[in-house]
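In the laboratory, one determines a bound structure by crystallizing the protein with its ligand and collecting diffraction data. In a computational setting the workflow is compressed into a single prediction: the sequence and the ligand go in, and a structural description comes out. We illustrate the idea with magnesium ion.
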Amino acid sequence: MVHPIEYLKGVGPQRADLLKKELGIFTFNDLLHHFPYRHIDKTKVMKVIDLTPAVEFAQVKGRLTYSEVAGEKSARRLVAYLRDETGTIELTWFKGITWIQKMLRSGEPYTAFGRLSFFMGNPQIVHPEIEPLVSEAAGAKSHLEPVYSTTEKLKARGLGGKQIGKLVQVLLDALNRRDLPENLPESIIQKGHLVGRYEAYGAIHFPKTSTEHALALRRLKFEELFITQLRHARLKSERHRLSKGVVFGKVGELFNSFYKEHLPFSLTGAQKRVLKEVRIDTASGHQMNRLLQGDVGSGKTIVALLAMLLAIDNGYQSCLMAPTEILAQQHYLSISALLKDMAVPVFILTGSTKAAVRRQLLKDLAAGEIKILIGTHALIEEVVQFQKLGLAIVDEQHRFGVAQRARLWKKATVPPHVLVMTATPIPRTLAMTAYGDLDYSVMDELPPGRQPITTVHRYDTHRAKVMDFIREEVTAGRQAYIIFPLIEESDKLDYENLMQGYENVKAFFPEPRYWISMVHGRQASEVKEANMQRFVSGDTQIMVSTTVIEVGVNVPNASVMVIESAEKFGLSQLHQLRGRVGRGADKSYCILMTATKLGTDARERIRIMTSTSSGFEIAEKDLELRGPGEIEGTRQSGALNLRLADLVKDKAMLEAARNFAEQLVEDDPELETAENLRLKSYLVSLQGKTPWSRIS
Ligand code: ADP
Ligand code: MG
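The predicted complex, in structure-token form:
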């Protein structure tokens, strides 16, 4: 199966080169996995009268009435007419004219098949497949024909979809059962009602019936999902059993006194549960690798802080890494404030930390005098050395690449515990696939007293009314955000829109009665920070901004979020932005402004936003609308190399595959029983072939 593709009969070195370059087909195995993207049902014969633009491919049986060569030079073509008892269809060839003309016999019966198009209201097929009908009664060929993707270059070298199909046929003919041995344990095949692996590969390419194809597809999808889940389950189980980790053996002085005396509120049930999970993990002697998903405003910061206190109590340092300077600053301020009555040194390190301060800080860090370090990407630089790093927390992880995260873990001899926090809810199926080797906590509960945010949709033409509403809220002492899209910080047009929007807002809210902050990506970070700070402290009532404030910013007094050109934002971004309000006790509003003309997808996004406030529900919809490849954070993870399975449509199968995999690893972690041996050897054969998302 690992034979180079040039060894296949009919390929040879030149075609092999093209197959490699154009389709990434290097081996027999690659070709076998070049699945047809659909099958054409040639069992159906249509009447001309039934042909409509909705029909994509059509097979027609009839008598050839007449053919002629028309047009000059490049427009030269062969036109033939095929008539059945209901009408006539036109067949056209631009290539191979002479040869085809010789073959066609007027007055004889033929079957024609191909992609249907309409020219001046008349049905036609360009470059049809055409075959003489031996006898009227013989009817059309009866099978499902696979359709393969190919490229223009390959076509030019005689490797169109059909020829690729022929190569696959040659390959399948050459393969026997031993080349495609069963890899799933018998009991799973039985319980899952799966067809055999060898049969499945045959039938996914060349099924006899659509049922046979469906069964083959089901088997191979299951295998794909099961193997992914099995690898995750084994990594996880291995880590639980074998990895070394820093031991946080006790809950000590700092944790307890903070918990008893300085906690500004009582924790939600979800917060307590996650803390408990963290405590169990960090005391286990194995490295914690935990993904914490908590919807916006669910209170992840305090969980992070308590975990860091736990580390300090056990003699270790910890760090908290945030994706932006503003967010790092905010964490620094709020954590310092929470710890103000306790002797815990908290420091911040970002790209804008002054050289002298930085030098001292690095020294203190290496000497172990700094217990909590908060920062941005600056934390993962080589020069940043801890004395004893025991816990690394990454906030809003989807902005960090896997490789960047890995650099954090290298900062201690025994890898530190890792807690990855995200407020971008990831649908369960996606989390199971992309982050399946991580332990997984969910905070699905908001702190008490939060009022639901009212979300409405308003057209641009009603801006004046929206401004009036903001004025009412501001007059009542609250604050408002007005967000403009700036997809690319360098986009000139977006930038001008923002500036114009700012002027516009100023006209509604003149100084000195009102004060406005403006924050965008082109500002120097001090300016950005100062503007942000004025809004946080309440000196300005209105924040006009781009999405730089999207993640994590916390101003509980803000009660209105206006999103301009909301149709330009994706669902998860809209949800993040909305999460900036509704963080205090006041009733909050999110107003989605759009143009009056909206595309279907945009309209759907707005509809979803106005109908639910659950991040998890929104994430599911987002996955449905955009597909997994587009969901942030998973694109680079490399873990989603599913060829057949679809995380939206095959959810139930994924759950089943996961259950089977976990049960199997629990019963037989090393895959040593006779029944699991073929699975083990299959996994060994895969080693090193798939890029994996491993956090540690
Ligand atoms: P996120 O999960 O989005 O990072 P934060 O940690 O910023 O959320 O918390 C959001 C707000 O909720 C903050 O103002 C925080 O002080 C407050 N908060 C967090 N936990 C609780 C709680 N258990 N009870 C009341 N307020 C809480
Ligand atoms: Mg947060």
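DSSP finds 23 helices and 21 strands in the chain. Keep in mind that any predicted model is a hypothesis to be tested, not a measurement.
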